[in-house]
Amino acid sequence: EYIRILHNLVGLEAELAQRLNLMQVVIIPGDSEADSAVRRELGRATASVLRQHLGDNMIVAVSGGSTMAKVAEAVNFSVPTTTVVPARGGLGEVVEYQANTIAAVMANKLGGRYRLLHIPDGVNEETLEAILDGDTNLRAVADMIKKANILVHGIGQAGEMAERRGMAAATIADIEQHGAVGEALGQYCALPGKIVYVTSSIGLKLDDLAGIDTVIAVAGGSAKAKAILAVAGTGEQSVLVTDEAAAKAIQLLI
Ligand code: F6P
Asked: Most-buried pick from 6, 128, 146, 152 (CB within 10 A)?
């Protein structure tokens, strides 16, 4: 029975890779939304994709979120020449789920180094530029992020992420009115892959991803199907790691 499920998933992986125009799709059996063991597996599968792409002296940028926290925890190999950086700063997550925290945890697991972005949440671009101008260390980290070889990031539902970040009701309404269903890197996306709102912050945006060799997105659960489609539709991901529940829900949408 297990072999049969795996076999079907391999077919679905190929189908989604083709339809979403991705280099690779990895689907783990089960539903990570309902089962914490599957959440852990999603982290492990993503860590193993990272391992395949990670060479010496690379910069790895990571996003925040509970799924990415599982990815960092699951890293069980060492590449000490790695530097891990947060992909973006100040997106308004609790400490455990901040990209800074995940970067530090992952770097320690790899036996490598990390550099952190200490910037406040909810600051406009102009103020951020002024902060960068006055802080050479911060500027160096910001430059380093842009040179990342690998990005690993989570994907969330637009409305849920806007709420989780405590955005103003008017902003949330505006984002929803523009049809946003998915969010990644502080950017809210509508189907089939249009960025409709960008949180001001420092670091990588979806537009920058073309310059990064490997972009690994991770997200599971059927509730995230549209979110995954919208973010994948922006066209810059290379690998998607997801679960059976999300993959089957996506299949029904495409
Ligand atoms: O806030 C960081 C982030 O990676 C978001 O870009 C993404 O939408 C979210 O976390 C995913 O969070 P979770 O894995 O907890 O659903």
From this structure: 152
Alpha carbon distance 166, 104 (integer Å)? 25
Across the strands, what pairs with 217? 153, 240
Write down the residue that tokens 């102009």 correspond to: 126
d(CA 139, CA 31): 41
- Reported ipTM: the value is 0.99
- Closest ligand 1 atom, residue 154 Cα: 4
Backbone phi and psi for residue 152, each to the nearest 5 degrees, phi listed first? -120, 125
Distance CA 162, CA 199 (A): 10
Atom index in ligand 1 nearest the CA of residue 227 equals 8
Give 130-164 pLDDT, tens digit per residue. Answer: 888 999 999 999 999 999 999 999 999 999 999 99
- Ligand 1 atom 2, closest CA: 64
CB 172 within 8 A of CB 196: no
Which DSSP symbol is given to 185?
T
* 3 Cα to the center of ligand 1, angstroms: 32
Task: Tell me, using a 6 A CB cutoff, whether residue 154 lines ligand 1.
Answer: yes
